[in-house]
Write a structure and sequence with these properties.
The protein is α/β, with parallel strands linked by helices. The chain is built from 13 helices and 17 strands. Pfam families: Amidohydro_1.
């Protein structure tokens, strides 16, 4: 007699004493079928499955992180960073989805044709899922609708020179036109918010002393630019997002604007939360970024901005370059390329620096759910039924020393080199399958 055994309910069950859901940390068995979460059962009630993955008791199952601010630079500047290296570094850091910035590649992603070149370059190289921002430059505002229809997740703008000639900044009239355009499209404008007049009036960046570089990018540049964005977002009822917020004294105006219903959000970055100006050594241009890393008091206030829900998410602003560009001028902060390469170590950097009140549930909100919500990826960044089974297995008490030569992004330079960080990513899973370095299985995402 043939007995027909019941079919397994799931392909895989992930069983962990610490599962980080949007509401709480729970002991649970998370069932996955066809790459999606189909059940979250009690820890003891393991659904029938072909395979059970037991998460060690010293680790937690987090949602795969979502990083909405990554400069990949391919095509055109692949020697700075390419999709193969960037997505390997991301996966090693627990990131399962990234959104690529439109500048530093050649061509910049400011047309549908350029977006297609970017997608062609990324195809079959990505270990994780990848989406794309479009750019808002003076010459393409009338064509932003075409880019939106082609699937970009929004539009990035600069208010001052971007650092590369292929991506022009917006003057005040162009910025207003761009805000009006995204309002009409119900799209999102994301902005490098520093006021050019304040920067022009500040001392020019020069020399090996970090304090001199810091003086060249005063906090007023951020606050004045953010005030402009608030005014325009309110006037046109547009969705506007402040990139890489470094100046905590902008928080009260952001809070007040949001209480009035202005549709403005903000992010900050691991380097602003874990590094401070007082600690940056003489000539250490690996710490140079714009806006700059500010002082300890400012850092404390940024953490409070997260606690108070004024800052919505933490993303890397992974902005790599070659070692030669980063060391240009022999440690002269005025000559070196500005950007922190931190994609792989963002989670442990933030966890190491976090105040006592921060829980892993908070980290999941800020580094997974928040960025996913920003770009409208409802199936990413959360452990809930129906979401993609993207996971990060994280050992929060384990420590390691960062060695820049062992990081998986392309160029071996890091502001975190030599630092002891707390929290180790043990494994990363995309749609229920572990990312191991075999055939890349990442998908290209569209809005």
């Amino acid at each position: 007699m043939t007995i027909n055994a019941p079919k397994p309910h799931a392909d895989t069950v992930f069983r962990a004493r610490r599962v980080i859901t949007p509401a709480d940390e729970v002991a649970a068995s998370v069932a996955v079928r066809a790459g999606r979460i189909v059940d979250i059962a009690p820890y003891e009630a393991v659904p029938a499955a072909r395979e059970v993955v037991e998460i060690p008791d010293d680790a937690a199952l987090l949602p795969g992180l979502v990083d909405s601010h990554v400069h990949v630079n391919e095509p055109g500047r692949t020697e700075w960073e390419g999709f193969a290296t960037a997505t390997r570094a991301a996966a090693a850091g627990g990131v399962t989805t990234l959104i690529d910035m439109p500048l530093n590649s050649i061509p910049a992603t400011v047309s549908v044709a350029a977006l297609q070149e970017k997608q062609d370059a990324a195809a079959a190289q990505c270990c994780i899922d990848v989406g794309f921002w479009g750019g808002a430059v003076g010459s393409n505002i009338a064509e932003m609708g075409e880019l939106a229809n082609a699937g970009v997740f929004g539009f990035k703008a600069f208010l001052l020179p971007s650092g590369v000639e292929e991506f022009c900044h917006l003057n005040p009239a162009q910025l207003e036109a761009a805000v009006r355009a995204v309002a009409e499209l119900d799209a999102l404008l994301i902005v490098h918010a520093e006021d050019p007049d304040v920067i022009d009036a500040a001392p020019a960046p020069h020399g090996l002393i970090y304090a001199d570089f810091l003086a060249s990018r005063p906090a007023e540049a951020e606050t004045r630019a953010i005030a402009t964005l608030i005014d325009l977002a309110e006037r046109y009822d547009a969705r506007v997002h402040v990139l890489h917020l470094a100046a905590a004294n902008a928080l009260p105006m952001l809070s007040a604007a949001r209480s009035r219903g202005v549709r403005i959000t903000a992010e900050t970055c691991p380097h602003y939360l874990s590094l401070c100006a007082e600690e940056i050594p003489y000539g250490a241009t690996e710490f140079k970024c714009c806006p700059p890393i500010r002082d300890r008091v400012n850092q404390r206030d940024l953490w409070n901005g997260l606690r108070d829900n004024v800052i919505d998410c933490i993303v890397s602003d992974h902005s790599p370059s070659t070692v030669a560009l980063k060391r240009a001028g022999g440690g002269d902060f005025g000559k070196a390329w500005g950007g922190i390469a931190g994609l792989q170590v963002g989670l442990p950097a933030v966890w190491t620096a976090a105040p006592d009140w921060v829980h892993l549930v908070d980290l999941a909100l800020w580094m997974a759910t928040g960025p996913a919500d920003l770009v409208g990826l409802e199936r990413k960044g959360r452990i809930v039924i129906g979401a993609d089974a993207d996971f990060c297995v994280f050992a929060p008490h384990e420590e390691f020393v960062v060695d820049a030569a062992e990081l998986r992004h392309r160029n071996p330079i890091s502001a975190y080199h030599g630092r002891t960080l707390r929290g180790v990513v043990r494994s990363t899973w995309l749609r229920g399958e572990q990312i191991t370095g075999g055939r890349p299985r990442g998908r290209l995402l569209q809005k």
